[in-house]
Structures are given as structure tokens and as C-alpha cells.
Specification:
Layout lengths: L1 E2 L5 E2 L12 H15 L4 E6 L13 H19 L2 H6 E12 L8 E11 L3 E10 L5 E13 L10 H6 L5
Amino acid sequence: MQASPEGVLWAHGAPARPTEKTDSLHTLTRILRLVTDRPHPFELPIAVRADDIDDMQHVNNVVYLRWVQDVALAHWKSSATAQMQETLAWVATRHELDYLRAARLNEALVARTWIGTIDSRRFERFTEIARASDGVVLLRARTLWLLVNRGTGRVTRISDELRACFPAVG
């Protein structure tokens, strides 16, 4: 298997870039990867706005980082209990972003996030941002999030109850 510049895995001998003949295969491969590699990703729609655009006429890299945080926060708010949200917070300790393609003004995007490994105090979270129209992935990110107690500001352990709210992939 080899990866194309878009990050799609292709079998040996298959073209690295889609053509008219491989568009269906390209789409099917992308869908299968989403279904098999990322059980139950959380999704958040994104509309590219004028203030997201930089002087190169595409979305600024810092905006992608904001979207990575936005989808993580939305996932937290949709999955954690009210008590957890009142007493706990997450602090990002590491971001790794791979910018694959540019997004443009007025494009509809979708951010997908899922949990990787979980240790006693930290979540590994993966995020992809893709164009809604064709599913092409524009960004892949890996972030480490540390759990803290809102009242004390101190690092706290991840309870079994919290783990149950966020099934991990790894």
C-alpha cells in the first residue's frame, strides 16, 4: 500500500491520484477508511467565513487549530455529564497538525474527532477536517489533552465514569 499526497491509501499498481476511472474507487476507499479506522467519530459542520481567510486567499493555519479546539470542545459538551463539565476542564499540552490541502471561502467543511489512547490523566485526540462536498481531508491533527479540576486548577485522574463517555480507539 502507498499513500497519495491526499493521504488516501492505494494498493500497489493503482494510481496515486484519482482519475475519472478511479474516482469511484477513491470515494469508496475514503468511506471505508472512515468507517473502519474511526469508530463513532464526533462530527461538527464548519462554514469557511471571510475572517478565516489569509492573504494567500485560503484558510489561515491558525484557524485550523481553532477548529481542532472547537470540535474537541463540542465533543466534550455533547458527551460529558453536566457535573463533569462544571468540575473538570481540559488543557492542551501538545498539538501536531498536518496541513494537506487548502480550504477556501464559503466552502462547507466537516471536522471529525475521536479519542485515541487514554492514560490516567490524559486523552489523545485525533481530528480530521474535510470538505463536505467530496470528503477530501484537508487537515489531520493529533492533540494531547490533560484533565484538570476547575476548582483547584490541578491535574486530576480520569475516572471510569469519564472514560465510559468517550470510547477510545487505541
